[in-house]
Amino acid sequence: MIKAILYGLLGTILLLLPGFLLSLVAYPERNQLGLPSRLAVSLGLGVLLNAYLGVVLGRLGLLRTSPFLLSSLLLWAGLGAVALWRGAYPFSLLRGFLSRPREGGSTRTGGGAGGK
Description:
It is built from four helices and no strands. By secondary structure, the protein is mainly α. It has one domain.
């Protein structure tokens, strides 16, 4: 029973995650696509990407579990990197954390000459 639940969870992740990451690449802003629309698009794109990945691996004679999972992980990493580069909204918090100002640096935003 637990094995069937784990297979279902893994299958859901394999279907939704690549499509979700590709939707973040295509529509990086939060207001460009609502959550229900993004989930529907993610499902469709995930099926498309996994089918394409299966065809490519089948042509190469590598359509087995390990190569499929490894190539899926590489695809997820690539799509996640592009989504991060494009400034997709889940990654905007991470991007802000990575680019915080250095210690001892000036944090003034005023642009005038001198003060009192």
